Amino acid sequence: MRILLCVTAGVALAATSAAVLAFKEGPLPNMTGGFGDQTCRLCHFDDDLNAPGGSLTLDGVPATYTPGRRYEITVRIARAEIVRGGFEIAARFASGPQAGRQGGTWHIDAPRLQTVTSQTDPSLVFVQHTTAGTDASTPGSVTWTFAWTAPVSDAPVQFNVAANAANDDASPLGDFIYVSEKTARPQ
């Protein structure tokens, strides 16, 4: 009985460690917290969402967008003790017949970033970090910049982002998850 218990615990620990390490390469799709999605708290669960002492900023999202125009978007997660950081963002139509579907096009050109496709809607694309993009090169924060081209549409676009201020201990504990949302309306 004791051997079986140790083997079972060892297998569970190995599976958990492998899953946690895999997220340094980027989270699962649909972890932005918008439109009923989960957040990174699905796996990093011991601290409150948007806990005091840290912040998540989303800059560059226009209040009103010009269809077809390209905008530079910056995501920044900050917390004094951050060692690594990660994020995932989506841009979806906020209302109308396309509500919840991809709103615009992402452009990335850095090895710190990647796009991933939703497992539930292949038209929905997320931008997220890669392993190379998780280091807190500036003490206390991690920043990512990429571009978004606004859709040719008359519907508002909702941006949802979730980010992890991580302690890099290869466990889901001691990390802080933050979420933010902004909406860009068509001109």
Structure description:
There is one protein chain. By secondary structure, the protein is mainly beta. Helix content is about 10%, strand content about 40%. The protein is built from 1 helix and 10 strands; from the N terminus they run αββββββββββ. The strands form 2 sheets. It has a 6-stranded mixed beta sheet, with no helix packed on it. β6 and β7 form a beta hairpin. The longest helix is centred in the first third of the chain and has 21 residues. The N terminus is likely disordered.
Please name the defining characteristics of this protein.
187 residues; six-stranded mixed β-sheet; four-stranded antiparallel β-sheet; 1 helix; 38% strand; globular; disordered N terminus
Short structural summary:
With 187 residues, the protein is mainly β. It has one helix at residues 2-22, and strands spanning 54-59, 64-65, 70-79, 84-93, 105-107, 113-117, 125-129, 141-149, 157-166, 176-186.
Strand order of the largest sheet: 2-10-9-4-7-6
Number of helices: 1
Task: Tell me about the largest β-sheet.
Answer: 6 strands, mixed
Count of distinct strands: 10
Give the CA-CA distance, first to last residue.
68 Å
Question: How would you spell out the order of helices and strands?
Answer: HEEEEEEEEEE
Strand fraction: 35-45%
